[in-house]
What does this fold into?
Amino acid sequence: ARKHEVLPFLGKDAPAPLGSEQGGRLAAIFDVATDEAHAWSVLGDSPIRDATGRVVGFTTTSARGAITGRTIALGYVKRGESGAPLALAGDGGLTLESLGQIWPVELLSRPPVEVGGKPRPAEAEPIAASG
It folds into this structure.
């Protein structure tokens, strides 16, 4: 075989995994407005809902940011039937339900800190939705 030749393999024609760009969800970062008592307590698999109550995503993990002092959660935003994300950065009315509490959530367009740990300026340009 040649060095850069793409060889056939079993499963090559299989659909993309759910977590991939063509799948049913997109990786996301959420800023969760928890109270002080729950800053470290947002559970994985907590639903993210839009203003109508529809589940548009979910969390996988969270922690209180050492630099930001805010609760930052990682998770996914679901794609609709058209393939477009069900929520975008800047959408108002998003909430997260966890531990019997409901908190406002902001879907971030990029990480809240720059490489090297510097907080991002508030006026940073948002990243356009991909896909």
Observations:
- The chain has a mean pLDDT of 83.
- Residues 95 and 104 are 4 Å apart (CA to CA).
- Strands lie at 25-32, 47-49, 55-64, 71-78, 95-98, 101-108.
